[in-house]
Specification:
Elements (H helix, E strand, L loop, with lengths): L13 H9 L2 H9 L2 H12 L9 H7 L6 H12 L5 E5 L13 E9 L4 E9 L4 H24 L11 E9 L2 H4 L6 E3 L14 E7 H17 L8 H4 L3 H10 L3 H10 L2 H12 L3 H68 L1
Parallel strand pairs: 3-4, 4-6
Antiparallel strand pairs: 1-2, 2-3, 5-6
Helix pairs in contact: 8-10
């Protein structure tokens, strides 16, 4: 019996899932188009041999569906933002996405809070080459959207103070280089400070979260606890320091051993995993979700490789330009020295 099947009796055996696929010609045709690795991964998801990638769009939006249970997303955002927040609605964000940009995104959701603030939550599989510049542009787009809404709503009584802050929260499965370097940190919150010390209320807020950094930190804690012969099951507070870390563990781990650790430490998450394995009972629905993930993964990988190649080319062009500049300076110095030598020789011949 698998580790997770001990906790979730509804998890099916591999032969049950395969029989389900074989008895449906449409599902069987789709299944046969997958690679052996893709087939194996899908069956591992269904049978609890591996946890689902919670971050991926179809799974994330299913688990955090506000029509089903709004408290989950409320709790996640509250733990990220460091204050109690409440969602009043989920908004369409396609119109706000710059140039229909969706590459490299695993999921993207836009919500309005009770205090009027807009919060965009993005999860990226691989971080963009310029995360700060990109997030700034998208945040500006959202802020302009809010400005127009409030201005049109209040007409002559419009005041800039009526506009609530706009939050851009980006969660990276694989962090961009700038964040990956800060290995000891997994969350970064922006804070604008003026050099004079004046306090000005700026409306754009940014929070970056590195799931890979967090997972490495978590693994280091587990290794330390094991080396100290600490009971991992009983020492939940030593393993997870706050509510945000509980959520990040839920979002980032797919190893059954770590999932078991989480649900033993924090039973709240057992209900979320129960919903996941309830979803796994519907083979057709899960296959549709999985197919969408595969399609997005292929597109994202290509875009990322192009982005990385462009960054490498830009870096090489920069190095070449610097070398050309250095050579030009040396050539100019040689010409200067030649001129000095020529003038000296002419002076000596005149004497």
């Amino acid at each position: 019996m698998s580790i997770l099947k001990r906790h979730f009796k509804i998890i099916r055996e591999r032969n049950e899932v395969i029989d389900d696929i074989n008895h449906n010609p449409i599902l069987l045709e789709r299944f046969n188009k997958w690679t052996n690795i893709q087939k194996q991964t899908f069956l591992d998801y269904c049978t609890g041999e591996r946890g689902l990638k919670i971050c991926y769009d179809p799974y994330f939006k299913e688990i955090f569906n506000v029509e089903y249970d709004k408290s989950r997303l409320d709790d996640l955002l509250s733990s990220i933002m460091g204050e109690k927040v409440k969602i009043i609605m989920v908004l369409p964000n396609e119109g706000a996405r710059i140039a229909s940009e969706n590459t490299l995104l695993i999921t993207d959701i836009l919500v309005r809070l009770e205090n009027g603030s807009l919060v965009n939550v993005e999860i990226q599989k691989i971080g963009y080459t310029f995360p700060g510049e990109r997030a700034s542009c998208y945040s500006a787009d959202l802020l302009l959207r809010e400005y127009k809404r409030i201005r049109d709503k209040n007409h002559k009584h419009f005041k800039y103070s009526d506009i609530a802050p706009v939050y851009t929260i980006v969660i990276f499965e694989q962090s961009p280089r700038t964040l990956a370097k800060a290995k000891e940190f997994y969350i970064h919150k922006s804070q604008t400070i003026f050099d004079t010390g004046v306090e000005v209320n700026l409306l754009q807020k940014f929070i970056f979260i590195s799931l890979d950094n967090f997972k490495n930190i978590l693994q280091n804690r587990i290794e330390t606890m094991r080396n100290n012969s600490t009971d991992l099951v009983l020492s939940g507070d030593e393993l997870l320091h706050n509510r945000l870390e509980e959520w990040l563990m839920f979002l980032s781990v797919d190893e059954p051993e770590l999932i078991e650790l989480l649900i033993r430490h924090r039973p709240y998450f057992k209900n979320l995993y129960a919903d996941i394995y309830e979803m796994c009972l519907n083979t057709e629905r899960l296959m549709n979700m999985y197919s969408k993930v595969l399609a997005e993964y292929d597109q994202n990988t290509i875009v990322y490789m192009m982005d990385e190649m462009k960054a490498e080319i830009d870096e090489k062009d920069k190095v070449i330009a610097e070398k050309d500049e250095a050579l030009a300076e040396k050539d100019a110095e040689i010409e200067r020295l030649k001129k000095i030598l020529s003038n000296k020789q002419q002076t000596e011949r005149a004497v």
